[in-house]
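User: For a reading group we're discussing how well predicted structures match intuition. Take DUF3343 domain-containing protein. Before you show the prediction, I'll give you the sequence so everyone sees exactly what went in.
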Amino acid sequence: MSREYLFLFHTPLGVIQLKKRLNEWGIHFLVIDAPRVLSAECGMAMRFELTESHQYSALINSQVKSIYQITTEGYVVLWLDAQ
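Assistant: Thanks. Here is the predicted 3D structure of DUF3343 domain-containing protein, as structure tokens, for the group to look at:
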């Protein structure tokens, strides 16, 4: 079973860092504009699916602002940076 995630970032550096990690894992991703209903400091977000063999928490770095799971009802907050 896979789940779809949306990562928002403090700066574009976070996008670059996460792109590198997802490429290493062989995960397809999309870099998109952050949805207006969610706040993003750099305005960019990444959307991708992970299977149970990969945990989203392993992708958190200092540039990640928030993480959401995408569901049929909308966005579910999974993690928020305390900054």
